[in-house]
Structure formats: C-alpha cells, structure tokens
Amino acid sequence: MENAIGIIESISIAGGIEAADAMVKMAAVKLFLARPICPGKFIVLIGGDVAAVKSSLKAGRDVIGHYLADSILISNVHEDVFPALEAAVIIDDAVGMLRALGVIETFSVASCILAADAAVKSGGVKLVEIRPAMGLGGKSYVTMLGDVSAVESAVDAGRQKAEPEGMLVKSVVIPSIAKDVLKALL
Q1: How far apart are CA 45 and CA 120, in angstroms?
Q2: What is the set of domains in the chain, with CATH numbers?
Q3: Residue 124, Cβ neighbours under 10 Å: how many?
Q4: Which one of 65, 138, 153, 173 has the fewest beta carbons within 10 angstroms of its own beta carbon?
Q5: What is the value of pTM for the model shown?
Q6: Chain-centre distance for alpha carbon 112
Q7: In what order do the strands lie in the sheet with 41-48?
Q8: What is the pLDDT of residues 5-25, one digit of tens each?
Q9: Biggest alpha carbon–alpha carbon distance for the chain
Q10: Quick check: 60 and 71 in contact, CB under 8 A?
Q11: pLDDT for 44-61, tens place per residue?
C-alpha cells in the first residue's frame, strides 16, 4: 500500500539518474517520475510504504552526495494523491463534480504535493492532476474539482501548506468551469 512519497532533487542530471536507479533497486517503491525538471536539475519521485521510501531516499542521497539539492519524505499521503500524480483520474460528469475548478500553483514539486494532500484531506474535492515541474520552469500545480464551497475550502487548505514556506505562486477557484476549458486540461 502506498502511503508515503519521497522526492530527491539533484543539481546533476547524471547524478539524478544514478540516484533513481539506486532508489528503485533499494526497496519496493513505485517510480512516479525521474527526469530533468528545468535546466540542470533532475527530480526523482517515488511512492510506497514509509519504510521502503525512507530506505530508498537514503540510497538516493548516498549516491548523489554533494549534488543533492533537496530531499523530502511525505508520510500519510491521502490515497487520491497517487492517481493524480499519474494523471490517471477518471472524471465522471454524472457525479456533479464539474461545478468548480481549483488550481494551486507552487514553486516546487514538494510544496505542490503537500498542498494537494492538504486540499484533498479537507474533503469534498476530487484531485484531477498534479503536474510536477516538467516544462514549467521548476514550478508545479494541482487541479481539483468539486462544488464551489468544497473547492474554496480545499484550495484554502492547500494554500496554507504552501504560503508559509514562500512556495505559493497563485491559487484560483473558478466556479462553473467551462467544459471546453476543462476538456483542454484533461
């Protein structure tokens, strides 16, 4: 059962690839992402049980050495975060989830995942996607759907996770999102 996420950010592409290999060989973790995120930086994002993620992160940090930019373990992650990371969420228009769209944009992948986790734990929303940094200049964003009040509460909860660290770029709630816009995002 996946309930933890581990992230390693490297300032070396080669070091990041080497770390990703060491991390997945160390323990039974799922590799969500292993790629450059902006010029000169490489990110590895894994999920799994807490002990496996901890040991994988240690293996990755050991391999990267002084090329390590950041490393984080997020435990007790809500189960809806994992499909959102894989963009594998199925949106069923019939359940009435298409009333409002919430977006939280952050300066880092870790802060986005923390914001997404807080948002979905606030209740009443469905995470659509967590877009981690690729082609975004190192920034990330999460999108969610639900009724207007639930989305407002969820975005507020997520924003509270990102703001104190100075990682929040912008957050918005769009009531009655246009179906064409939503379709373009999915």
Answers
A1: 20
A2: 4-75 (3.30.70.1710), 81-185 (3.30.70.1710)
A3: 16
A4: 65
A5: 0.83
A6: 5
A7: 30-38, 41-48, 4-10, 68-75
A8: 999 989 999 999 999 999 999
A9: 51
A10: yes
A11: 999 999 999 999 999 999
